[in-house]
Amino acid sequence: MVFESYGVAKHDASFNESMAYLLKLNKYRPPKSNETNLGIRIHTDKNFVTILSQCQINGLEVQIKDDEWISVDFSPSSLIIMANDAFMAWSNGRIVSPRHRVVMNGQEDRYSITSFSFKKGIIEIPEELVDEEHPQKFKSFDHFKFLEFYAKDPQYLDERIIKSFCGI
């Protein structure tokens, strides 16, 4: 659907066939009296797309344009889908990778289930997404080499790391 909306549907099937997935179960405990309520610090995800179920307890917050944080409160049966750093590079910056964090306010453990997708091989920016109005912002790159690059120096938890890896 996203590929169609950007006029690059011809890439959809081959792209989907070259994806790898990681399913992660997360548990966050309530903060102790001397700890902050931050379950996970501010970051962007390095993969292509994240699908998240917050299960019974919300806690995800997303930073919006004016640097304000908004709580992502959905019913337990809802899924949250986030485009991430690799998707941002593939889209030539048209799709934004959201900065987010997990905040723990209650006294109960919080569980979530997260599915991460990764592109095997080279991510190439479709030529249809590069024009005079949208000059190329990223070079083609190997997704797993990007993850290795990030693992060596994880100081940049936000989208700046992909810009330093393959930005133009």
TrEMBL record:
Q: Where is the Fe2OG dioxygenase domain positioned along the sequence?
A: 19-119
**InterPro entries reported in the protein's UniProt record:** IPNS-like_FE2OG_OXY, IPNS-like_sf, Iron_ascorbate_oxido_reductase, Oxoglu/Fe-dep_dioxygenase_dom
UniProt superkingdom: Eukaryota
The record, for Pfam families, names: 2OG-FeII_Oxy (PF03171)
| Matches recorded under SUPFAM superfamilies | Clavaminate synthase-like
The UniProt entry, under PROSITE patterns, shows: FE2OG_OXY
Q: Could you identify this protein by its name? A: Fe2OG dioxygenase domain-containing protein
Q: Which organism is this protein's natural source?
A: Tagetes erecta
